[in-house]
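Field guide to reading this record: the first block holds the primary sequence, the second block holds the structure written as discrete tokens, and the final block holds curator observations. Each block starts with its own label. This record concerns ARB-07466-like C-terminal domain-containing protein, catalogued under organism Glycomyces luteolus.

BLOCK 1 — SEQUENCE
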Amino acid sequence: MNAGSSSPARARGTRPFLSGAKRLLSLPIVALAGVVFLVAPASQSSAQEEEGNVSEKLSEAISAYLDAKDELAALKQQQEDLEQELDDSEAESAELQAELEKYAYVASTTSDFQSTAALMASGDPQDAIAAMELLQFLGESRADRLNELVTRLAEIEATRETLADNIEQQEDATEEMEAARDAAARELAASGGDDAVGPTASDAPAAEPFEGESNGCTEDDPTNPGCLTPRTLHALEQAQIVGFTRYVKCYRPSSFGEHGKGRACDFAAQPDGFGGDAGGDDYDYGQNLAAWFVENADALGVQYVIWYRQIWMPSSGWKSYSGAYGDPNTDHTNHVHLSIRS
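BLOCK 2 — STRUCTURE
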């Protein structure tokens, strides 16, 4: 069976999921909590016991790509902010230059001595004193304003230089991102990964973006004894909230891969555990879930998704998965594997 295609029967099979998800979302929170983290029977086979993993080198290459992508996005946002500031500053600069020219004209056509002599000749000493004080104030205020204008013009020029530096950094970040992307592609190619057509669009609601810090395996794993990173727990909760409530296991001790780091979960296609190859509604469920993770990759911080002998990575899209060994666990034909970035 081709995991990248879906028959009309399969396409119709996604509708009950959405209506079920809507019914689930209408449940009270307390009731929802009771169905979110399901526990499989002890005799149920575990995909985590024999699951093939993406190589450590490939995982690191994907992570490097995502880090470089984030850096590039931040630099691009900074450039947009600087360009807006520069546009505003250019308009302000024109006004300041006009003001400086006005001050220069006044200074060249006005004599404080002549003005003071004329006021003193008016015959009213108080008016003369007030006039001289006003002239002194105007002189000081003009000097202060002149200093402000000079300072602001220097700031505008500094903004221009910062923008130029930012563009140069952005070019370097782009090169780093492309190098990381190519490294990930080479690592996958070495394992025999070919282009593939992944699952079609999901009909589940969008995920809420993760906010905050995700430093380390600090949160209790509600699916298994162990811990999860805050970002991974958020992805798990979001998947359950929108209606993907079938059996799931996340943490397991491991010296490689993301499970032992609290950054991966296995979502069973069958309702109550990891069984044989998913078919019918179970297959549709897996297709829907895998597509949903891809659609919400940025919001959730997805590093890669494996489902039905295919792997999705943000650097290359869907590829055939070469870590399959002919059984439902390593072929990932009975569960969707989700890895979350650190």
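BLOCK 3 — OBSERVATIONS
The first helix runs from residue 8 to 12.
The chain is about 55% helix and 10% strand.
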